[in-house]
Amino acid sequence: MSRAAPPLFRSAGVRLAVAYAAVFGLSALVLVFVLWSATRSLLNGQVDTLIQVDAQALAERWRQAGAPGVIASIDERLVGNVDDDAVYAVIDPYGRIVAGNVRNTDLQPGLPTRGDISELVLPRHGTRSVARLHRVTLPGDYSLVVGRDVDARAALRDLLAHTLAWAMLLVAGLSILGALVVRRLFQRMLHDVSDTAAAVSAGDLSPRVRLSGRGDEMDRLATTINAMLDRITRLMDGVRQVSNVIAHDLRTPITRARARLEHAAASPASDAELRIAIGRAVDDLDGITAVFQALLRISEIEAGARRSAFEPLDCAPMLRDLAELYVAVAEEQGIRLVTVVTSTLPLRGDRTLLQQAVSNLLDNAIKFSPPGGTVRLAGQAAPGNVVRIVVADEGPGLTPEELARATERFYRGEAARHTPGFGLGLTLVRAVAGLHGGSLTLLPHKPNGLHATLALPAARLPHRTADEPPALAPIGQHEHVAIGR
Amino acid sequence: MTEPTLGMRVLVVDDDRDVAGYVCKSLAEAGHHCTQAGTGQGALDCAAAAQANGIPFDAIVLDRMLPGGMDGIGVLRTLRDRDDQTPVLILSAMAQVDDRVAGLKAGSDDYLPKPFALPELLARVEALTRRSRTTGPETRLVVGDLEMDLLARTVKRQGTRIELQPREFELLEYLMRHAGSVVTRTMLLEAVWDYHFDPQTNVIDVHVSRLRTKIDKPFATPMLHTVRSAGYMLRAA
Predict the structure, then answer these.
(1) Under DSSP, is residue A179 helix (H, G, I), strand (E, B) or coil?
(2) Alpha carbon of B13 to those of A111, B38, B96, B122: distances in Å?
(3) Count of other CB atoms within 10 angstroms of residue A257
(4) Contact B99, B92 (CB under 8 A)
(5) Strand pairing partners for A483?
(6) Which residue in B has a C-alpha nearest to residue A423's C-alpha?
């Protein structure tokens, strides 16, 4: 699903690039301006010192050698002025220039007041250039103007201005290019996300956001979105399965109950028969209710809504209590229930759900064990900070295909066809394991039977450090062995 | 201890008239008096009126979802705020465990998810009133010729000592405390084992039958009876 590219200025990439160009241009401007004013004041300072010193020297000369001495000095200086940037003028009391290299008329418009430094545009060598002039008073109402052409400074300013202009142009050009590149990058990055989201909104839950493999922010976003989609898919699958089940699996008992009641109502039967029929229909309804409750419970667990009931608990006494509950049932059927549970197995979890999960495993194991068989219940701490609960039986076990599907809702293995149950027991165990961040593993038990392992993350005991081996106490204190019969 | 709890006054609060009707009918058949209310406010009015007349209810069966602004939990809170300690059993279509916890926290004494079996409801209501009547610690329970010493943790029938496992002792204690009343499997599972789920196989039956071989088999008359499609009842031989 592709979408037309948005108009240029409605693209976040372009806005970003323009903002970037503006910031860059402004900073170039500020930089050049600061550079310019610093250079300018430095150059002016140098020129000013130079002309002030020069003027002082000439004034001193006037006092010693009079006008002819000064004029000679000026001529001498003009000859030695290789850069041809010096400006001199000796002005008589009537305002006429009597010596120097400027004409009277040129100076007239902005002759500096005495003792001051000012800038004036002078026509020199056919062009007009800027000069800084200093005027000092000489005895006899004469005055002396000493100046320097600062055209070099103007050249520098022009150069900087040019540079700035070019820089601006370059910034503009680069930012347009940048805008296009960033927009393209943005589009490439968001394209996948937005396409995936659009497909999901349209009802197809299968697409996923591609990962670039760079592990950057976009990858993290993509991973989060994909995880969210996986979760939604699983929940949707659950809902779909439940709907399918309501459509198919519940029809059977409902049909049966209905037929039974109809038959009882229609055919003339004795009171006793009627009662039996009604009783069976109630049993059917109870069965339907049980399926519903199990389904709701599983959905609730899979939705992860039950973690609020988590508490720190010790699995060991819980397992021993369950073993005590089931050992009697096992004995009734001539089955040995052997329990080996470590003294303490702390973890965080939902007590009722864990009890129900282990109870389901024990139910199954006892249900499928042949008379004289042994069911083993073990609870141990395993490497990797795991509490491992194992229930193993010596029943017919499951074929590899059955093993793969055993935890599906309503799946029943071949051996289970003629036993009571709905095929939800292991689904619930798996859901409980998932809720606790653990896993349910089903393996064939040698030579026959099923080996169900519930692995749950253990809680660290507050008083035992990790490096201290837990097996220091004698075995007898650690292991609880209960053998039925 | 042995006489059945008869003539209880029970207030049934449920907006579904059919359900309330059946509940009342079966309570009446068991010898109790039943009053119905369809809303939360109606329930509070009934309870207040009964209290004022000096004949308060012995138990209240309260549906969680009620029309008219005040739900079952609201009714329960108001009752407890009024310092009305009438035992309350909450009925709810919300069967999640968290709902059960919320109901118990709000001050209910028991919780039964819908759909329920009428015998289960009846047994639980009777157990509620039984619980509220026994106050203070007891040291000895007696049902007919069966005696239990709670301190020494010994059981005797016709003067003969019977050896019981700790769990069997607790099971018998619960049955003796509810002697004359039906006790369901779920009630036993909750009270004796503290389990709040339904095991697929009937584990309770096995434990009860073991207890039966110890307290009934050696003697001429049985005390521990199975009540069809309901549960068990212990009564004097």
Answers:
(1) helix
(2) 111, 6, 21, 15
(3) 20
(4) yes
(5) A338
(6) B200
> A307 and chain B: CB distance < 8 Å anywhere?
no
Which of B97, B193, B201 lies nearest to residue A367, judging by beta carbons?
A: B201
* Sign, Cα dihedral of A461, A466, A468, A470: positive
Structure token pair of residue A251:
């029809």
DSSP-assigned letters across all residues of A208-222: -PPP-SS-SHHHHHH
* H helices, E strands: number in chain B: 8, 12
Neighbours of A313 (CB within 10 A): 17
Q: Please choose, from the candidates B19, B12, B231, the residue with its C-alpha nearest in 3D space to the C-alpha of residue B114.
A: B19
Q: Tell me whether B97 touches chain A (CB under 8 Å).
A: yes
Q: How many CB atoms lie within 10 A of CB A357?
A: 30
Question: Are the CB atoms for A208 and A236 separated by under 8 Å?
Answer: no
Per-residue b or e along A390-403, where b marks 16 or more CB atoms closer than 10 Å to that residue's CB: bbbbbbbbbeeebb
Whether B22 and chain A come into contact, CB under 8 Å, resolves to: no
Spatial distance between the Cα atoms of A432 and A452, rounded to a whole number of angstroms:
14
Q: Residue B170: its pLDDT value, please?
A: 94
Task: Please give, rounded to a whole number of angstroms, the shortest distance from the CA of B121 to a CA of chain A.
Answer: 15
Nearest CA in chain B to A352: B196
Indicate the residue of B96, B196, B206 with minimum beta-carbon distance to A328: B206
- Cβ-in-10-Å burial (0-12, 13-18, 19+) of A80 comes to exposed
Gyration radius of chain B over CA positions: 19
Touching A: B residues 26-55, CB under 8 Å: none
Beta-carbon contacts of residue B107 (< 8 Å; ≥ 6 apart): B76, B77, B79, B80, B88
Q: How far is CA B143 from the centre of its chain?
A: 18
Interchain contact, B207 vs A328, CB within 8 Å: yes
Q: What is the Cα Rg of chain A in Å? A: 49
Measured CA to CA, the distance from residue A361 to residue A442 in angstroms comes to: 11
Residue B184 belongs to what H/E stretch?
strand B183-184
Out of A279, A309, A359, whose CB is closest to B97? A309
What is the Cα–Cα distance from A108 to A55, expressed in whole angstroms? 20
Q: Is residue A447 reached through a cis peptide bond, with omega within 30 degrees of 0 on the bond before it? A: yes
**Contact B11/B49 with Cβ under 8 angstroms?**
no
Q: What is the pLDDT along chain B (237 residues), one digit of tens a residue?
A: 434 456 889 999 998 899 999 999 999 998 999 999 999 999 999 999 998 888 899 999 999 888 888 888 899 999 999 888 899 999 887 656 667 778 888 888 998 888 888 889 999 998 887 755 555 577 889 999 999 999 999 999 999 999 999 999 999 999 999 988 899 999 999 999 989 888 877 889 999 999 999 999 889 899 999 998 789 999 987
Q: Is A320 on the interface with B (CB under 8 A)?
A: no
Report the 10 Å Cβ neighbour count for A314.
16
Q: Which mean pLDDT values do the consecutive 10-residue runs of chain A (485 residues) have? A: 55 75 83 85 87 88 85 86 82 81 68 73 75 84 85 79 84 80 79 87 86 82 89 82 73 84 81 85 85 81 76 93 92 92 91 92 91 93 92 86 78 71 84 92 84 89 46 37 40
Give pLDDT, residue B4.
47
- Indicate yes or no: CB of A425 within 8 angstroms of CB of B200: yes
Site of tokens 């008589």? A92
Q: Establish how many alpha carbons lie within 13 A of residue A336's alpha carbon, considering only the half-sphere containing its beta carbon.
A: 12
> Which pLDDT value is given to residue A19?
82
Q: Nearest CA to CA, how far is B82 from chain A (Å)?
A: 30
pLDDT number for residue A105: 65
Measured in degrees and rounded to the nearest 5, phi and psi for residue A145 equal -115, 120
Residue B95 to residue A293, Cβ atoms within 8 A:
yes
* pLDDT value for B133: 54
pLDDT at residue B183 in the model: 93
